[in-house]
Amino acid sequence: QVQLVESGGGLVQAGGSLRLSCAASGSIFSLKTMGWYRQAPGKQRELVAFITSGGSTKDVDSVKGRFTISRDNAKNTVYLQMNSLKPEDTAVYYCNTLPISVTWGQGTQVTVSS
Fold first, then answer.
1. Mean pLDDT across the stretch 18-32?
2. Do 35 and 12 form a contact (C-beta atoms < 8 A)?
3. Distance, C-alpha 53 to centroid of its chain
4. Each residue of 72-91: b (16+ CB within 10 Å) or e?
5. Most buried in the list 41, 43, 70, 71, measured by CB within 10 Å?
6. Which tens digits make up the pLDDT trace of 71-114?
7. Does residue 55 come out as left (phi exceeding 0), alpha (psi in the -120 to 50 range) or beta?
8. Rg for the chain (alpha carbons), in Å?
9. d(CA 54, CA 39)
10. Residue 21 in contact with residue 6, Cβ under 8 Å?
11. How many CB atoms lie within 10 A of CB 106?
12. In the chain, which ranges are E strands?
């Protein structure tokens, strides 16, 4: 069973940067499309960006040009570099496969102050 452990969140001022990491156990990681998701208070969880096994990426319009997803298959890790953070980026951030096929991890809290 694949397990996901997110880290790297924190409190940052608007305009700041954070780099999130998601470590996945399991040898099939490199074959999977991986995504970063977030859930803000009172809102549904949403997909933010994803990266295919071959390295192709796509992100949603609200983070385009500010967030970059990447992966290191040798380390079974996917990253989310977040720049120019805005208060509306405040949420718990999670990683998972796309489509979702793994139990959610605990997530990592990102709080952006204005």
1. 88
2. no
3. 15
4. eeeebbbbbebeebeeebbb
5. 71
6. 999 999 999 999 999 999 999 999 999 999 899 999 999 999 99
7. left
8. 13
9. 27
10. yes
11. 11
12. 4-7, 10-13, 18-24, 34-39, 46-51, 57-59, 67-72, 77-82, 91-97, 108-113
